[in-house]
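Reopening this one. Same input as before:
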Amino acid sequence: MKIFKRILLLIPLILLIIGIYNYPKLNILAGYSAKNTASSVFVANRTLAFTDSTDNNFSPVKLALDKIDKKQKTATSSVFGLLTRKAIVREGLGSVLTLDKSDETASYLVPKRLKPDNVTPFPYGNASQKDSVFSNVDYHQLNKIVASVFGKRKTRAVLVIYKDQIIAEKYAEGFNKDSKLLGWSMSKSILSTVFGVLQHQNKINVQNKAPINSWQNDARKNITIHNLLQMNSGLEWDENYDEISDATKMLFLERDMTKMQENKPLVGKPNESFNYSSGTSNLLSGILRKQFDTHQEYLDFWYTNLIDRIGMNSMVIEADLTGNYVGSSYSWATARDWAKFGLLYLHNGNWNGDQLFTKDWVAYATTPTPTSNGTYGAQFWLNAEKQFKDVPASMYFADGYQGQRVYVLPDQELVIVRFGLSWFEENVFLKEVIESVQ
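Same output, byte for byte:
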C-alpha cells in the first residue's frame, strides 16, 4: 500500500518532467490545433465537433482538447492540461495565434474588398452557369473518375472545367459549392501572382536584388527576388512538419513570419541550390509590403488587383500578428473560386478582357528552377520532366498539404481542382480525366 501511495505521489512529478521535456513540441501541437480550429469554425463556418472529428483527428494533434468562444471568436487548445494556446479571429485577416495577452486587444487594419458580381454567370461572375454539353466529353466516364477519389481517399471537393464550363463537380458530405477550403501551400502561387501583377504594372522587376537591408554587408546581397520566387536562394531552411523545425516554429511561434528566413545564412549558391521553403514565401510577402507606402495599400492590393478582381470573393488570406499575409500557407476559398485562379493562368492573365499579367509571366512562372529536376517554377509545381508520366509535360499546378491542387492543362483547355485530407494517385486521376475529354 505504501509503495502504491508513493507511485501516486510520483505521477505528477513524472508528468511535470515529461511536460518540461516536450514543452516545445506541445507548444507547436497546441498551436496547430488552436489555429486550425479557429479558422475552421470562424472562417470556414464549420462546427467544432466536425473540425475535431476530421481536420484535427490525426496524431498527435488529436491529443489536444479544443474549445471555442463563439461570442469572442476565439479557440483554445490544451494538451494534457500542461499547455494552452489561443487563436483569435480578426475581421478580414482570418485567425492568428496569440503570443501574449495584449494580442487579443491590439488594433489592426482591415483590407478593403470589391463587391461580388452575382449577376454574371460563372466563371466571370458568381451567378449560375448556363448548361453546356460538349459532344467530345464522356460525362459518364468523367463522373465515374471523379467519384473514385472520394470515400477512403478523403476527398472533399473536385471541380473540372473545360473551355470555361463546369463539366464535373462533386463534394463530400458536409461540403458544397459555398464551402471555404484551405489551400495550404497553394497560397504560394497566389503570392507569386501578386508579383506578376505588380510586374505587369511596371511597379517591380523580379530580376532585381532582394531589398533586404540586413543582407547588404554579406554575400546574401546578391540574392534576387527571382531566386526567392524559384526557391533557389541558397539560404538555409528546414521544411519539416514532423518535428520542431524552421517551418513549424515560424507558423506557430513567430509574431512576424517574414523575418525567419531573412535571418538564415547562406549554405549554397543562389541559382544553384533549390530548397523548398515556406520561410522564403513569407519573406517575399514582406518584400511585397515594402512596395507600398502604407500597410493599408499592401492589404488592399492583393484583393483589389487580383483576388476580387477575378471574382474570388470568398477568399481570405490570413495574416500574422504584424499584419503580413501568410503567403506560405493560409488562404481559404471555395473550390469554384480556386478554379477561377486556374482559369486566369489558362487564359494567360486575361480575365474576360482585363489583362492582369501577360503570357510572358505565365512562361516565367512555369520555367523550371535550376536544380529542381524540372519540378518547380516560380511558386508553382511543374510536370516538365514528366513526374506524372501519363500527363502532358505542359501541365502545372498549385500544390498544398494533403493534396490540395489546382491543375492547369493549357493544351487540353482544362482546369482541375481537388481538395481533401490525404494524398491520392494523381497520375491515374489526371490521365483518366484527360481521356474522358477527347
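So the earlier flakiness isn't reproducible anymore. For the record, The CA atoms of residues 85 and 379 lie 31 Å apart.
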